[in-house]
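Work Package 4 report. The design task specified in the project plan requires that, given a folded chain encoded as structure tokens, an amino acid be chosen for each position. We show below one input record used in the internal validation round.
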């Protein structure tokens, strides 16, 4: 008994996969009992039967497209969101293709062609699968863009949208490919084994590209920065993150130059995110040195009022002065101000330095600088 069960199990495991077209239902299974006698009469003309089946399914497809979908479009127009409108727009074609091509498959089976029946049926079923695959890819992109757009539901964080989008597309393509293999009667196990061997070879040949790809996954998952952030790299690059891809990240510098950095490089670099923290505000430090003997209280008051008067300096937190130390020829202060956007740091710093220089001159506060006095001990004798 054990030997018999083992043989049966082996036969079950090695049995070839039956194509889906061999399991296609016949038209008789879909007809009501009242129409069976009329159908039996037309069996003498298979081409006529096939034409009737194709016409019926074509009419049904038109009804679905022109009546049902138009009604659904009217209902979706009552909502404030455009997501349902886009989904219905992308579903219209695969639904029509499914009804039409399924009817054509039944018509081809009914026509009893001398050759090519299975090939035509497989092609029609494959077109149905491809049509739904393309529709799912488009609909998934629309849904993820909507959920990650910062709406009131906050179901998906924007930084995870590229990762989820890639995963959904990959799963959709894999499932569609598996169904296509079943339609054409191909055993997927052998293909998976071959793909594993090919994958190892490709992995060695494209290790840099794969490193960038996996680094892109880690960047999206860990989120050291996001779109719109201003970041500094330890290699000296500074700019606004304009795009985060699975292979590279693009920075737009203040010189309007776009830098593309491979994710494998940026993942191992030290990143300073100037836009990080609870908000986008950034602190800017303006170094100021004044001569010894200056009224420091008056200095702090003058520079604080100067910073508050600047339109792009935040009032919350308030600008403040900090004494940093006593230099060789100056008392060193830092004027600390907060700005709303890191990209304006250079321009606002320039404007503050200009105002400080003019204001200190008007207040009679000396800005010390290096100077040397030359004393002549004795003039040379011209005689």
């Amino acid at each position: 008994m054990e030997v018999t069960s083992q043989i049966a199990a082996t036969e079950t495991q090695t049995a070839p996969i039956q194509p889906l077209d061999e399991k296609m239902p016949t038209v008789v299974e879909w007809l009501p009992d009242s129409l069976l006698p009329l159908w039996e009469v037309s069996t003498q003309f298979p081409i006529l039967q096939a034409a009737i089946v194709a016409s019926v399914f074509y009419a049904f497809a038109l009804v679905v497209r022109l009546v049902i979908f138009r009604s659904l479009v009217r209902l979706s127009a009552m909502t404030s969101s455009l997501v349902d409108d886009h989904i219905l727009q992308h579903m219209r074609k695969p639904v029509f293709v499914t009804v039409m091509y399924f009817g054509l498959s039944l018509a081809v089976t009914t026509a009893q062609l001398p050759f090519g029946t299975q090939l035509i049926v497989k092609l029609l079923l494959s077109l149905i699968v491809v049509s739904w695959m393309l529709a799912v890819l488009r609909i998934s992109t629309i849904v993820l863009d909507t959920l990650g757009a910062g709406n009131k539901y906050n179901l998906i964080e924007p930084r995870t949208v590229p990762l989820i989008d890639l995963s959904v597309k990959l799963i959709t393509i894999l499932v569609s490919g598996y169904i296509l293999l079943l339609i054409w009667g191909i055993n997927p196990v052998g293909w998976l084994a071959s793909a594993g061997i090919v994958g190892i070879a490709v992995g060695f040949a494209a290790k840099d590209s794969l490193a960038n790809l996996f680094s892109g996954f880690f960047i999206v998952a860990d989120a050291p920065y996001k779109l719109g952030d201003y970041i500094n790299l330890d290699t000296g690059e500074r700019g606004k993150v304009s795009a985060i891809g699975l292979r590279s990240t693009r920075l737009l510098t203040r010189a309007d130059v776009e830098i593309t950095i491979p994710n494998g490089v940026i993942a191992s670099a030290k990143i300073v995110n100037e836009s990080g923290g609870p908000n986008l505000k950034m602190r800017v430090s303006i170094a100021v040195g004044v001569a010894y003997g200056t009224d420091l209280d008056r200095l702090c008051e003058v520079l604080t009022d100067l910073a508050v008067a600047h339109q792009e300096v935040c009032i919350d937190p308030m600008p403040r002065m900090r004494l940093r130390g006593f230099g060789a020829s100056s008392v060193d202060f830092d004027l600390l101000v907060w700005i709303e956007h890191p990209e304006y740091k250079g321009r606002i710093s320039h404007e503050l330095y200009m105002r400080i220089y003019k204001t200190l001159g008007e207040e009679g506060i000396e800005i010390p600088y290096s100077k040397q006095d030359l004393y002549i001990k004795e003039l040379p004798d011209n005689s």
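Strands lie at 230-233, 238-244, 248-252, 258-262, 271-273, 282-290, 320-326, 331-339. Validation will be extended to a larger panel in the next phase.
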